[in-house]
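Predict the 3D structure for this chain.
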Amino acid sequence: MNEISVLMYMLSRKKSIHHIGATKKEILKSLNVKNKNKSIYFQDLLTGLSKYLEPLGLQIIFNSLNSHWFINYDNELTELISANPFEGRPSLSATLLCVLTSCLKNSGHTSIQEIRALRNKKDVKDDIKILEKEGFLELDKKTTNIRLTPLIGYKLDLQKLFVRLALKLKE
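Done. Predicted structure below.
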């Protein structure tokens, strides 16, 4: 196998619902790169592969929630879907945004009470159960603490989301 084949395999593999692709360390280990310039070599590999995949509508994306690089198909339709993967269920989108905001504020975890207060809604348990079932959240039943899973980094382009939110705040 050549480097491109190994890289394509590593970036497109699905280890679980929460882990797609590979970390930089995993990629460098599978390519047996050990020299001191391995970071430069890694960036060159990703840049070269990215240029090669661009005409196919594929792009290499970094999920900052779990430090995994992965391949994604990008066109206008997938951008619309990824902007709201809940198709007509605005309650889930609002709850997930509140969880995301609260987790960012509280170092990665939040509680049902905080989400209830942010949503200004008496009961958010149904939304949280659905989001947990779909793999976006992990709920600790004993402490009622909520934590985001890395899946959100694959389904939503967090950078675009934060840029759009920042632009809305400026308006």
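Residues 3-74 form a domain with the Arc Repressor Mutant, subunit A fold (CATH 1.10.10).
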